[in-house]
Specification:
Helix content: 40-55%
CATH topology of the largest domain: Rossmann fold
Largest sheet: 6 strands, parallel
Distance between the termini: 62 Å
Structural class: alpha/beta
Number of strands: 11
Order of helices and strands: HHHHEHEHEHEEHEHEHEHEEHE
Shape: elongated
CATH superfamily of the largest domain: Response regulator
């Protein structure tokens, strides 16, 4: 096993005292005056011997663990979860922090993970909260925050708590406006069944409100199709027995064939739902986007354009969300609200402006 290098080794290599090395490497203000040339000499010596500071010593000195915890859902969209995780991890590195990840598939597991994170004395907690029809662990996270550990949510599940989220209302508004301005009049919104519940479906509800405001402005009819999803109710995240895309396809087909309605545009809350509409259009022989345009509010999954036209959408601004979440954790008290990150529209084949 290779012997760990210490500041004594750096001092010997640079030909200076241990106290001077400590002053340079700690980055803190010190009574020891160090010239720029000497500072660079110490840093060069540390690089040459591959010196790595002791996290334990650093923590004891600063009374911080230099750890942030990310409590995330074990299920849901793999693509979105991975991008958020990567963005949070990269943001942590910018501040010399490490990230401890706790995936959860149930409220009980999320509670255990929260206790584990607190026992590790993390300096802050970022959480993508689990929720089901009955409850969330909001009270437990509030208690953790009251104990002095910053808790930052991704989304708006916990009312009145700081966090960061996409500006879903603006996304719904911008999507509807793009379609309306292109001359589309029969714009159907495909969403999830909890879209009327701002607590259990905050994103869908916000997008719905944005869509409705534009339909009212243009005097167009509001047409909403909520997809019913099979789920496990007992303290677990939404669990699909068949894919969201399949559910959207079959239910949309049954509804439109029964009613005889012919939308000239679909505004879908996610790619998963949008692809269901796309498969229906292909089955009916409707050309995309000439006959029916499609815009998606979120790129949760992506399938090859050989299967269906690439979706015009508002992709997840993962980098901005990750940076904001970490900075809020490390600067508690600066913000007490949910920060809404604007999302940029990305043009593709399913809708052309």
């Amino acid at each position: 096993m290779r012997e760990r290098k210490t500041i004594s080794d750096v001092a010997e290599k640079a030909g200076v005292s241990r106290s001077l090395v400590s002053a340079v490497l700690s980055g803190r203000k010190s009574t020891i005056r160090v010239s720029e040339a000497t500072r660079e000499k110490v840093l060069q010596a540390a690089r040459e011997i591959n010196y790595r500071p002791s996290l334990i010593a650093k923590s004891l000195l600063s009374r911080r663990s230099f750890l942030l915890a990310y409590l995330c859902t074990g299920g849901g969209s793999w693509g979105v979860s991975t991008r958020l995780l990567r963005s949070i991890q990269n943001a942590c590195r910018l501040h010399d922090y490490s990230l401890v990840i706790y995936p959860s598939d149930s409220l009980e597991e999320e509670e255990r993970n929260l206790h584990a994170a607190l026992e590790r004395q993390v300096d802050g907690i970022i959480v993508s909260p689990l929720m089901n029809i009955e409850k969330t662990n909001e009270k437990l996270f509030r208690k953790a925050a009251e104990s002095g550990v910053p808790v930052i949510q991704i989304g708006e599940t916990f009312s009145g708590s700081p966090g960061v989220t996409r500006d879903f209302t603006q996304i719904g508004r911008d999507s509807a406006r793009l379609l309306a301005e292109s001359g589309r009049r029969n714009i159907m919104m495909i969403t999830y069944e909890n879209y009327l519940d701002p607590k259990m479906g905050p994103a869908s509800n916000a997008e719905y409100r944005g869509y409705c405001s534009v339909m009212e402005e243009y005097g167009y009819p509001v047409e909403v199709f909520p997809v019913q999803l099979l789920r496990v109710v007992k303290n677990s995240n939404l669990s699909y027995k068949s894919s969201v895309t399949e559910a959207a396809f079959h239910q949309l087909r049954a509804y439109l064939e029964k009613t005889g309605k012919r939308p000239d545009a679909f505004l879908a809350c996610s790619h998963s739902l949008a692809y269901g509409a796309g498969f229906f259009c292909r089955e009916k022989g409707w050309s995309i986007p000439e006959d029916t345009a499609i815009i998606s509010c979120s790129d949760d999954i992506v399938i090859p354009s050989l299967v269906l036209p690439a979706l015009s959408c508002f992709p997840l601004a993962a980098t901005e969300i990750g940076i904001s979440a970490v900075e809020q954790c490390l600067n508690p008290g600066v913000n007490h609200d949910v920060i809404r990150i604007p999302q940029m529209y990305q043009d593709a084949s399913s809708f052309v402006k």
